[in-house]
Amino acid sequence: MAAAPNVGGSLLGLAAARQTALVDNHKVLYAASGPNQADIMRRIISAETGGDYPRLKQGRLTEHEQQVAQQLVQAPLLIDDGSDLTAEAIAETAPYVQDLALVVVDRLQTAHNARLPLSGDRLPSASQVLAGLARALDVPVLAIVDSDDPTLLRLMDADVLVTLAPTGDPAKVQVTVAERDFGAIDSAYLRPDLLHARFLDAGVAPVGRTGGEGPAPSLGYAVERELAEAALPYTSGAQQGLPASVTHVLAALRTALANGDPESLTDLGPSLAEAAAVPPQLPDTAEGRRLAAALQAYSSAASAGTTEQPAVAAVQTAADSAQVPDAVDEGDDGDGLVAGDEEDEPEGHVFPALKILKDAVARSKMHPIPVIRTEERDSAPWTLISEDMDGEPRWVHPDVTLTRVPYIKANGKRVRRDKLDVPGSFGEGVLCLIDRNGSFPSACSAVPLAPNKLLHTGPLDAFDKTKAGIYLIDIPQWHRTDMPHPLGRMIERPDEDGRVWVTTPHLKQLEKLVREGHLGAAPTIHDSWTGKANESLFKPFYEATRKARTELVQIGGESYKAYKTRLSIALRLLWPKRPDQKSPFWRPDWRMSMVAEASVRHWSVAFRAVQDGHKLIALRNVDAAVFWTPPGTPPATYRIGTGFGEVKAKFVQRGEIIPEGDD
């Protein structure tokens, strides 16, 4: 089974093991070279229950998940995760497993790793040993390899080759089955669900409807299917909190879709519409937000009688923003850049941010490479970098309930705003809103990054302070409930091995937390792309920005607005998203390192406040925090002011909305 990293080869191999051991009740030998036994067990629990893998990795299981874990102990699944696991050792062990039905080898790693015998140039010989095992025992041996390189796969000489390949649609992976002598036999599409360590069906043609008038027949199969998928954590019992009547109707929806039963779908229409019209209050978790969005999209489609394709868009829009379609947020769309932004500011501009940033890079004695060539951008390491690496917390205290409520601005615009419901057990107090000044330009004062090319440095025994870049690490366990995980939202999107790519600022933060005793051990670095480190590349830009802010914040008006606009554009131009957007830069690693540095500073200051005894209610993006404090008393760990490194503090009474922007 061949798949490039992060495509999901291990998850499909695990699905075969789950089916064989848990459904068919046949014995499976799972040879884990890379993931350990605990990783495998967590993935199975996540896939079987729909529970979030990152949460399970933190050791937090629901009652239902604990029951599944107990059942796994009794399952005919033997996991061998020995450090000296070789193909020969697997071949010697397997004959002693009575009634063996399947051997899974997870995985053969193409990059050499001294700690893993099943890696590097030993793979072809290992494949021959495993093929001999399959023939000797007359059992299938499923070996997962983390590459789809045709040259390597020919050397492996497998009887059957299953290849997973990404498509233009991130929600689909193509799976092709080929036989050694006859070539490709067939292919299919699957939908990756990495949050739950599994693949799902990519979808089938819409079920034809018969009979009945009204909105239900026109809702579109996509809306109903999304609602059923979003409800799965609740209908499966992994999550609690839905009224029994709603749980029943959503479970019936899933059954009707699975059975292709159009009559049942039609009969369920009124009950679904009623449940969606008055949705239950859901927690601010990934599962809760998705189900809330799906219910609102269904309600909107039902009332509007929209066709299937707009319904798909409604689901996507609502799922992305967790709000109803008639109320919008004022956020950025894409990278927020337009044609002409890449041009230098005219002479006499109040703040020529782009000129200053270009000059700062050009002055470096390290001869930076500001633009990666176009032909290199579709390969590693650039394809490994994503916006998720910002590490923004987007966290709410587990005892506090966040809801999105309608709000009408002074200009009459209908929007949605957050409301935080604080329990009475927190005592008397008010919401103290902390707004950090200039988070991104402040971070530019010392961003650890590699000005030159990133080279593939592979697994590392330890973090090298002289290097910077991106690193593939395990998600460290974080047991505190009064602070979000140090990696923020990154933990919500691990790969199939429960690992994430991080930039240098977050890796340095984890190392510091280990030194201070807040983490048990530094994370293992499984892969890396690094270059010589530098922390002063953007420092001239930071100094010019700070000086200009000191002057312009007093003036205000259009001058200050122009300053902020050009500042934002300059930093966004470090990584323009659209291919047709011109820019003097194309360095995703620079951009994400800068944003990550801002997130790390934001988290660290909030953590100091919590250590001093303050109650953190929410830690939002890179510049907003909410504390529960006595009226007019912000945490002393923050400095109030208008300069960089300082914050603005506002106070909101219990039950009021959290204002945004110019509210």
Structural commentary:
The chain has 663 residues and is an alpha+beta fold. The chain folds into three domains: 2-201, P-loop containing nucleotide triphosphate hydrolases (Rossmann fold, 3-Layer(aba) Sandwich), CATH 3.40.50; 216-321, no CATH class; 327-663, no CATH class. 36% of the residues lie in helices and 18% in strands. It contains 18 helices and 20 strands. It has a five-stranded mixed β-sheet with strand order 1-6-7-8-9. It has a five-stranded antiparallel β-sheet with strand order 10-18-19-13-20, with helices on one face. Helix 8 (221-235) packs antiparallel against helix 11 (286-304). The chain starts with a strand and ends in an 11-residue tail after the last strand. Mean pLDDT is 84; it is low at 204-220 and 306-333.
